Every structure is written in structure tokens, then in C-alpha cells.
Amino acid sequence: MSWRNGIRERAKKALDKPPKYGIDVDVTNFIPKKISINVNLSEYSNELSLVGIDVSEKERMGSFYQFESQIIKAIAKHPGVELMSLEDAIDEYGKDILEWFWNAVPVDQDKFTAIAELKGKGGYFIRVKKGVKLKIPIQACLLMREHGSLQAPHNIIIAEEGSEVNVITGCMMMRETIGLHAGVTEIYIDRKARVNYVMIHKWSRAMYVYPRTGVIVKEGGEYVSHYIAFTALKALQALPKVVLYDAAHAYLSSILALEGDAKADTGYVAYLQGNNASVQIVSRSITKDNAEIIARGKIIGKTNDVKGHIDCQGLLLSTKSRIVAVPQLIAESQDVSLTHEAAIGKLGEEKIIWLMARGFSREEAESILIRGFMSVDITGLPKNLAMLLKGVLKMIAKSVV
Amino acid sequence: MHLLICKDLKVSVGTKIVVKDATFYVNENELVLLYGPNASGKTSLAMAILGHPKYKIVNGRIIFDGRDITNMSMEKRVKLGLTATFQFSPDLRGITLEELAFEIASRYGMSQDQMFKLIELLKLHELLKRDVNVGFSGGERKRVELFLTALQKPRFVIFDEPDSGVDPESLALIGRAISEMVKNGLKGGLIITHVGYLAKYINATRAYVMIDGTMICHGDADLISNHIFRYGFKMCIKRFKGEIYELEEWNKRKS
Ligand SMILES: Nc1ncnc2c1ncn2[C@@H]1O[C@H](COP(=O)(O)OP(=O)(O)OP(=O)(O)O)[C@@H](O)[C@H]1O
Ligand SMILES: [Mg+2]
Predict the structure, then answer these.
(1) Does B212 lie at the interface with A, CB-CB under 8 angstroms?
(2) Closest ligand (CA of B86)
């Protein structure tokens, strides 16, 4: 595959390049692993439902399972969509894959993109054909459980003109052990197409998580992204970049509920590249124990009549945790309307008392308030995906108090 | 039979004594009014009876249903069926009224039919899909407060100004909701009010007047109401200063 040599060369040069934000990690400590156990997915159905994965696959248009570096399954249930592993896609498309390969995310962005290209295995390739609208979601499940493992899949989603696809990605570390997850996701949304993307992460105390995501939304396209991470982890850093052309729109939310000694630095960067493009960046950060979250949001308005808003809220559930809100607005044209709001606080005692007067215990009252705090706009999602998201958030609100 | 008795109650918030001396009772199947000027300590009294941890009982006793609940936690009191509607209810962003109502109703075994009846009665349809109290008008908040409390099928409720800022039509709705609560098991209530308008729609038997943290008089609801509307609290203070006064007796003695 000579066409890939140039890409690999660029990657090699970036192997020592630290991430722009978050703590640096020695990536050489981690290598891709095979699973050391026999996998019977149905045994994990309860755990997997925590990250939105339904092993019965009843209400799913397709399923992709990757355990460590092995692909267990990649099946789509609709002729209008291709779903396969990246390796299979490269086999099938050959050089033509370059149209969607390392264009939305630069391969030499930092050591994490570099290692994904050089050592990474797997990842899914989803291509939805022109005009095909799939309201029922496709699910992708990425699991880890081995000590010292590197999981660096490269995912690609292509929504052709006028199409629609809903994708749930659930990622999980199944044991309390050290690992590095550095998944790359590139999403290409063509004219008037729509992608709703829900990503749910549940890691463990010793996990390093450095996903790299780039999204390109062409004229009139729509992108909705909900990123959810909960429980503990060691370090998380992610800053998906979304480029929006004429009249394209994006709603980008991150909901983090972190505990233990978790350190997270997350958010989105949106480039309003075309006229009438618009974006909303929403973050809801909850910290417990010693957790720390830096919630970023950055909008760059480059052309006429673009609109952008950042809504950044933090909720501290312990005295030792820390939240930093960093909204940033950059106007490079006169005709932009960019705004932001940010607020950080704790649970309102009077609200808790009022809910207790309505018959709830203190814990239940807190969980209701946390659920309210986490709620984001889900009106853009089809009903089953919206319900799924609500269910996951409800479960998190219960478990976090 | 006394359902609730408060004897020599003294309540503090922080370092401040907010209720100095409150003695009163509510009988079973009785709705009693509590009057008093602003800042006289009515809400503080309500919160102390509810068991709000900020309101500390420094002296006196609270007996509910024959049980001394003076040192009982708020959670336990609410479990016994004692609760309060709040004068100022909070906004709950991200939680719809419908969602919360279902949660309360299901935990108290309130049937859907009973719930829909209350929704109908309090004309709440339009509010169900909205976040609780967010952007609600003053009157809407009062109706919602009554509604959610009714879903708990409480035995005893302290209604903290359910009629303040409520238009006459909504007032009738609130009155009917209280009657509905009685049907669903409400055995007694203390209604804090400035105006007593609600008295038209419910059958209040007696009334108390609290001034400057002290219960200063007590008597027939109509008599006290008329007295306050005619003379204001000033006369009340002047005439009944220093003791809890049985208005009826005073009237009898006068005639
Ligand atoms: N949490 C608190 N912290 C400090 N002061 C308080 C607190 N709660 C009540 N107070 C004070 O206690 C006094 C009585 O207040 P309370 O709310 O009980 O009055 P009220 O009779 O209900 O008045 P209103 O008719 O205006 O509702 C007031 O001076 C008030 O400022
Ligand atoms: Mg008051």
C-alpha cells in the first residue's frame, strides 16, 4: 500500500508531539492486545447497556463490536449503508479511501493520531448512501479489558448527500487496569445530510483517554453530537473540531460526571466557515471527589451571518474537586453573532429541601437535580435515541450521588 | 382529637430567634387559618414543623398524630404524611412537570385517574411538558405547588400562602384542589394567609394570629378574619397583647 507510506512518514514525525491540552502520556507504554478470554457478549448485556449498547440489537440498524484490537462483528441491516472494519474498507476501496482518510483530522496532529496510524487496529467504516435516511441507530461498541493495552481504532462515518444516520458509540474498560484509548473519528457530512452521533464512555481509574475527532459539514448539513463520560478515569483530553459550511448547523454537547482523581480537558472547536452557518456548544460538567474538569468551547466565526453560542455549566459535588470553564469566541468577520454563558456552582440546598418535602430522600432529591442539570437539548434526535440518552443520564444521575 | 399540637415553640435560624412563642393545635378534620404581618415568623414556624434542618427548635414540643416529632428528621415527618406547600417554590431546570408528577404519584400510589383529575381541576395541561416552575407565572406556581403536594396524598399540610397573588378564578381552583385532597385522605391543614380569600372556598374553622414571633390570638375563623379586615393587626396587638386570647370569649364578655 504505497499510497499509505507518505501518511505513515508524517505520523512517525509526530510520535513525540505532546497534546496541545491535557497531560502528556508516554504512549510507548501501551501496545495493542488480543483478548485473553472467550467473549460471549450476552453475558455483558447489563454492563454494555450502560454505554448505550443493546446486545439484542433489536432496535439497531447495524452493529459493530471491537474487543481490544479484534473485530468481533460488523453487520448492517440496511442495503443503503455499508458497515465494516477500517481494514476491510481499505481492502475494498484501496487508494480511494483517501477521500475520507486523515482529512478531517491531521495524522500528525500529535502523538495520539500518530500512534493510531502506526499501531492502531480496527475502527468502523460507515457509509450511508445518497438520500438514505436511517432513523434507527447503528451501534458501535469498543471494549477494553487487558492490562497496558492500547486501543486506537480509526472510525470513519460518511453521510452522502441528503442522507441521515444515527450512530451510538459505546466505549468501556471492563476492568480496573491501566490502558490507553486513542480513537480517531472522522465524520464527513455531505450537502443536506444529517448525522446524529452519541458517544458514551465508561472507563476505569487508570485509563488514559485521548480521542481525536474531526467533522466536516457541507452546505445545509446538520451534525448533532452528544458526548458522555462518567465514573472515574486517569486522564481524558478531547477537543473535536467541527467545520461548518454554508447554512450548516451543529449542536455539540459534552456531559461529564467524573469522580476519583479524574482529570479531564474536553470541549469542542467549531469553525463557522460558510455563510449562515450556526453552532451551539453545550457543556455540563459534574465533579466528585478530587476530579477536575476543564470545559472548553471555541467558536471561530469567519463569514457572514453566522451564529454561535456556548453554554457552559459546572456542578461541584465535593469541596476538593475543580471545574474550569473556558469559553472562547473569535470573530473574523463583522457579520457574526457569537455569545456565551457560563456558570459554576453547587446543588441548591433549598431545592433539595423542597424536593424532600415532596417525598424524596436527600439522595433522590440530589439525583433529580443532577438529572436536571445534565439535561441538554435532545429534540434533534429520533425518539429511540433520545430515550436512550435520557435513560443513560438518569442512570448516571442516580449513580453519582 | 388533636392532629397537630405545637406547645411553647421557639425556633431559631442561625443565631436569630424567628419564632418566640407559638402554642396552637389543629384538630382532626379541621382547616385552620394562620394570619400575621410580614416577617412575623409564619414561614419559619411552617419550616420548623416540617423539619427543615435550618430551622432549629430551641424550646417546646410538636406532637403529630399523638407522636412527639420534635426531634424527628424531616424525611420521617414527610413519611408520616406531614408536609408543606412552599410560599416560594424553586425552579427545576431540566425536569419537566410531567416527569416529576409521575415520579411523585407512583411513589405514593396515586392512580393515573386521580392524577388526571387534579390536572383537570387545576388546569395544568399546558404546563406539563415544561420544566418545573421555569418561567411560570406566580399563579401557575401556586397551582403547581398544590398539585404536586396533592399527589403525595398527605395527612397534614401547612399551606404557606397558597392564595397570595392568585386571581379569583384560580383561587376557586385552589380551593377545589384542597377539597380534593381532603377526599384523598387529608386529615387537617394549617393555611397561612394574608387575605383569607380562600376561606370562601374551604371550610376553615378557626384562626390564629402571629405577631412578632408570638401567637397572640385565636378564635373562630370568620370572627378573626373580620376583625383583621376591619381593624388590621394593630388592633389585634393592642387588644390581645401578651396572651393567647379566645376571641369568642372576649366577644361574649363584651356583649
Ligand atoms: N433562613 C433565614 N435566615 C435569616 N433570617 C431568616 C431566615 N428565615 C427567616 N428569617 C427571618 O425571620 C423573620 C420571619 O420570617 P418569616 O419568613 O418566617 O416571616 P413570614 O411571617 O412568613 O413573612 P411573610 O408574610 O412576608 O411571608 C424575618 O425577619 C426573616 O428575615
Ligand atoms: Mg412567609
Answers:
(1) no
(2) 2
Residue B152 to residue A371, Cβ atoms within 8 A: no
Task: Quickly count: other Cβ atoms within 10 Å of residue A169's Cβ.
Answer: 26
Helices then strands, each counted (H, E), chain B:
8, 13
CA A230 from chain centre, in angstroms, equals: 12
Is B213 touching ligand 1 by the criterion CB < 6 Å? Answer: no
Confidence band, pLDDT 50/70/90 cuts, at residue B236 = low
d(CA A151, CA A211): 10
Shortest Cα distance from A103 to chain B (angstroms)? Answer: 38
pTM of the entire predicted model: 0.93
pLDDT tier at B253, thresholds 50, 70, 90: low
Q: Which residues of A fall within a CB distance of 8 Å from B152?
A: 358-359
Nearest Cα to A321, choosing from A236, A238, A264, A399?
A264
Ranges of residues in chain A with a pLDDT under 70 are: 1
Integer-rounded Cα radius of gyration of chain A: 20
Q: How many domains would you assign to chain B?
A: 1
| Amino acid identity at A114 | A
- Which residue, among B73, B80, B103, would best test binding to A if mutated, counting the most A CBs under 10 Å from its CB? B103
* Domain CATH code at residue B128: 3.40.50.300
Cβ(A331)–Cβ(A302) below 8 Å: no
Q: Give the Cα-Cα-Cα angle A23, A24, A30 (nearest 5 degrees).
A: 120
User: Beta strand pairing status for B30-35 and B204-211?
Assistant: parallel
Residue type, A336: V
CA distance A226 to A159: 18
Query: How far, in Å, CA of B188 to CA of B31, rounded?
Result: 6
Statement: residue B246 has pLDDT above 70: no
Q: Is the CB of B70 under 6 A from ligand 1?
A: no
- Please report which confidence band the pLDDT of residue B252 belongs to, taking 50, 70 and 90 as the band edges: low
A374/chain B closest Cα distance in angstroms: 7
- Give the closest residue (by CA) to ligand 1 atom 2: B13
Residues of A within 8 A of B110 (CB-CB) are none
Residue of B nearest to A375 (CA): B94
* Cell numbers describing residue A230: 462518567
pLDDT(B255) > 70: no
Complex confidence, ipTM:
0.94
Q: Which domain holds residue B103?
A: 2-254
What's the one-letter identity of residue B239? R
Indicate if ligand 1 lies below 6 Å from the C-beta of B41. yes
In the numeric block, the cell 418535602 is attached to: A357
Cβ contacts of B107 on chain A, cutoff 8 Å: 359
Greatest CA separation found in chain B? Answer: 60
- Taking the C-alpha atoms of residue A310 and residue A283, their distance in angstroms, rounded to an integer, is 8
Looking at this protein, which amino acid is placed at residue A255?
I
Q: Element (H or E) spanning A282, and its range?
A: strand A278-287
* SS3 state at A327: strand
